[in-house]
Design a protein that fits this description.
The complex is a heterodimer. By secondary structure, chain A is mostly helical. Chain A is built from 14 helices and no strands. In chain A, helix 6 crosses helix 9 and helix 7 runs antiparallel to helix 8. The longest helix of chain B is centred in the middle third of the chain and has 37 residues. Helix content of chain B is 66%, strand content 4%. Classes of the chains: A mainly alpha, B mainly alpha.
Chain lengths: 390, 354
Amino acid sequence: MLIYTVKRFFEMIIVFFLFLIISYLLFNAIPGNAFSSLLLNPLLPPETYQRTIELFGLDKPLFERVQLYIINFFKGDFGYSYIYYPRSPIEVIAERLPRTLMLFSIVNVIAFYSGFLVGKVLAWRRGSKSETWITIGSVFSYTVFYPWFALMMLWFFGYKMNWFPLGKFLVPEKWYDSPYSSDEIFYTLILFTTIGSFLLFLVFIFTRNIESLENRRNARIVGLLFLLVLASIYWSNGEASLKRFYAADIAFHMILPTFTVTLVAFAGTALLTRTTMMEVLKDDYILTARAKGLSQKRIRDRHAARTALLPVVTSFIFTIITIIDGSVLTESIFSWPGMGQLILEAVTREDIPLAMASFSFIGILALIAHFIADVSYAFLDPRIRVKADS
Amino acid sequence: MENENFDRDIKATIKKNWRLFKQSRLGMTGLGIVVFFGFLSILQPLLFLTGIWDEGIYHPVVGYDAEKVGRTIVECPTQYPTKEYQQEGDCPRVDEVNIRYLKAFNIEGEVGEIYESNVQPAPPSSRHILGTDSLGRDIFSQIMEGSQVAFVLGLISAIIGVGISTLLGTAAAFYGGVLDTYLMRQSDLVLMLPTLPFLFIISAFAELQIWHLAVVLGTIGGLGGSVITVKSQALQVKVKPFVDSARITGGSKRRIMFSHILPNVAPLALLFMVFSVTGAIASESVLSFLGLLNIDMSWGIMIYLAQAEGFIFTGLKYWWLILPAGLSVTLLAGGFYLVGRGLDDVFNPRLRRR
């Protein structure tokens, strides 16, 4: 097992190395460079362009540049961003990444939880009329042309109904005399959401061993109410009560993107859960459970759904990889200043250091996610765990 | 003699599978949608060939029709809301014209009369079933052209992708060792590349035609995650007794791979193919929506034009510019998805009702 892990680790490093080289060559293949626009400016003397290129080392041969970049990369030096000049790519990414992660983690958690619940019910009610309609709805939202759908949502809820703002991160007018920067407020929001969801998770973990399903539900509702009271106490006391106004502004801008992406994302999980659940329902132990005289709900939730959870968890982890990739469209439609827009900007304006840094960030994330997928599978499925132990 | 038996076997299998497929109502619905769009894509060239449609008028890209549309002349109120109009944007309606515009161009007319002129985008009429866009081109013809693009792209990329992933996945499972490691790491590498930014880069240094995009999408899809899935399926087939007996009776490695393992992976591959068509159609639409493809007309471009010209936020006033294209993408992708689900029921006995 250890040998396998070490071997796998070395393979991962080689793959990452190749990934860096290929990405650099790809960016280099785009015609022109980030400073070509200097040539078009009649006020600048012609040697300005040449000097700028020399300053950033773009006049060196390709091979030397790739070599330099990779050596510096492993030293931890990512260079300077061309667009945001004095800042390094890491600083820019550190500013943008939390926004994307916050939005899309909330979306994914809600989407996977609700998708799992819906898929469970779909498989259970097979053949009924409600199953057909929910399936048609899920297939629609699974295959809907996303940019079109997002624009329609924006039109309906943002423009026609005027319930939500038309994209953007905040309303600048509200922030003129703000004592806090928007990042500061946003970090408070992130901290609050993280702690809140962690506590919610704890409530779920502690109540999961309550035998009676009704008692369990009541205990969860009480826990949820308790958390809500805690949250309202937090936001109405001390420094948080001053931040409340600004935090609410950001949170208000998050509602529509979250809702839209959740609608699209939940359907995939629901359809996947339905398929795996149907396979599980054919197993012998479900028949045994029925023969024992257990209630339908208990068979569904305790016996079938837990086994059906495995592929869903894997797909959840693989979704993490596609968060940044998938955020490109959402962020440009809702003008949400996150990683997706950053990558788009870096690629179109050929900011090689910034684009390379974000690409390698995605690469590392993907490699880690693959690793987590292997581990969590063993953790959730006792059959694999037992094999690994023996 | 043996050959005849084989033929009859295949016919019987197809017949049986068709019967199973017919049982799934959603699968049949999906098939109906796919056949409908297939019909649309064939219909357009036929209409041009037979001369029912004049290319000068109905061509999806360069056609133009100066159709006279009669509109009622109204005088827009200065204050809103009134009885007829809720807000300022509502007046004039699609079938009305404001008298102030007529006066500005020195055109005679009284309130309540009908004023005839060329209007683009023109609302649906008997000549143009779905109206015209802002350049006077027939929307219905564009939808037909778009479905041709979607079919060509979806099918080519699905065939390339599934061909690559089936061959490589089976080979990885069958030969194992270095080849397996190499292929798995390669699919890791492909999965690491963020798709949309990658396509941006490709479109920056190459002018993407439809079939270029089909090859690129097919290759990315074929080398990526589906190799892993096909491999795990092939591994399950590899340990079955009939593979061992084929080896014992002296079947060569190539023969075992191609005539014993591959046919058993084929159903999964077919399933993949149907599902990846959905993805390819969506990718094409997204790319042309962002204006990165070098093609004349597609559903994505129709939505891109509607958005770029500012019709999206007019809501349902110009519905024929927004709804048909978006719904076509959704419906065709959904149709292929439903067909895939129907096939899933056929090939995976554990999903069947009994």
